[in-house]
Amino acid sequence: MKLPVNVTRRTLLQGIGAFSAASGVPGLALAGSSNGEGESQSAENEQPQLEKYGIRQYTAPEIRLDYWIDAQGKPAEFSVVEQRGKWVFLKFFQNWCPGCHRSGFPTLKKFADEFSEHPDVAIAGVQTVFEGFSVNTQSAVRELQLRYDLPIIMGHDAGTKETQHHPLTMINYRTGGTPWLVLIAPDGTVVFNDFHADPDLLIEFVREQVA
Asked: What would the pLDDT profile of 101-111 be if each residue is shown by its tens digit?
């Protein structure tokens, strides 16, 4: 499923991921960037090409977890599918991930402060644990929520025996690790996913979309 081409949207999305390109972080081609997909973009029913990581231009899958907490730390529920009609920002993290604390959480905090009460925006964080299970715990989710004063719903995904304890969220979203940031359009299409994002450009982009 592809997002209709929009020059302003495309330019802003390219800018959001500029930090990744500048820092040499293994990244992804952003929506509308020059990545050899020109022909596929003109073919109406052709699926977009999968990139090294992520599912950009594909429909965001549901996230099914047994553990969600709201902004007050109380048991909660969250559904990506039920957020259709809204812009959805997701952050996948691990408690012991240096990059999460260096850039991921500051970006999430800035975005949440801007949009946590906006009726057309939904925000969630998920701890996707694939290592360090004794440190990246359920209790750490609440600790991080308090540490960064995050007024958002947060969850914990440590996988199952069937996935060899690899988080299903990571598998379905084809993440490259943590931190991993995802922006989903109101039609359910992933328009951005990467290790890092420029928070100011990200906020500017979403502001324009919900204006």
From this structure: 999 999 999 99
118: domain CATH number is: 3.40.30.10
| Helix (H/G/I), strand (E/B), else coil: 157 | strand
Phi then psi dihedrals of residue 27, to 5 deg: -125, -165
User: For residue 46, what are the domain limits?
Assistant: 7-210
Strand order, beta sheet including 68-69: 68-69, 153-157, 121-128, 87-93, 180-184, 190-194
State yes or no: cis peptide before 106, omega within 30 of 0.
Answer: no
| 1: in domain | no
Beta bridge partners of 87: 121
Q: How far is CA 21 from CA 26, 96, 104, 157, 195, in A?
A: 8, 24, 16, 29, 11
Task: Please indicate, yes or no, if residue 2 is contained in any of the structural domains.
Answer: no
pLDDT given at position 165 = 84
Domain count, the chain: 1
Residue 89 is encoded by which pair of tokens?
A: 């920002």
Other residues' Cβ atoms within 10 Å of the Cβ of residue 120: 14
pLDDT in tens, 172-181: 999 999 999 9
